[in-house]
Amino acid sequence: EHVRAERDRITAEYRELIANETDRQQFAELLGCAKTVFPYVENHLFYVEHWFHSVFWNKIRQVAAVMKEHGILDDIEDIWYLRRD
């Protein structure tokens, strides 16, 4: 609640600095948009990052299946023992 009150105080102060009504109206519209999309932007990184890791690890398993098929690995899960060095 304290953070919201601080947000409202700061935006009110900035609104008072705007010279004309057209700019104040645009400020209000953009502020409303920012308040709407903020939770989605914050959560977006979480979902994209986890989606990427899922895709990446599944692709690694597909590579491991090809390596097993060609006799390079004994088991698909052996891919996790490989190191870059």
Shape: rod-shaped
Poorly predicted ranges: none
Helix share bin: over 70%
Order of helices and strands: HH
Give the N-terminus to C-terminus distance in angstroms: 51 Å
Q: Report the β-strand fraction as a percent range.
A: under 5%
Could you tell me the number of beta strands? 0
Describe the largest sheet: none
| Number of domain units | 1
Give the integer mean of the pLDDT values. 91
Round the Cα radius of gyration to an integer and report it.
26 Å
Number of helical regions: 2
Q: Based on helices, strands and strand pairing, what is the structural class? A: mainly alpha
What would your notes on this structure say?
The chain has 85 residues and is mostly helical. The protein has one domain (2-81). It contains 2 helices and no strands. The protein has helices at residues 2-17, 21-69. The longest helix is centred in the middle third of the chain and has 49 residues, at 21-69. The radius of gyration is 26 Å and the shape is rod-shaped. The termini are far apart. The mean pLDDT is 91.
Name some characteristics of this structure.
mainly alpha
Lay out the secondary structure.
Elements: H1 2-17, H2 21-69
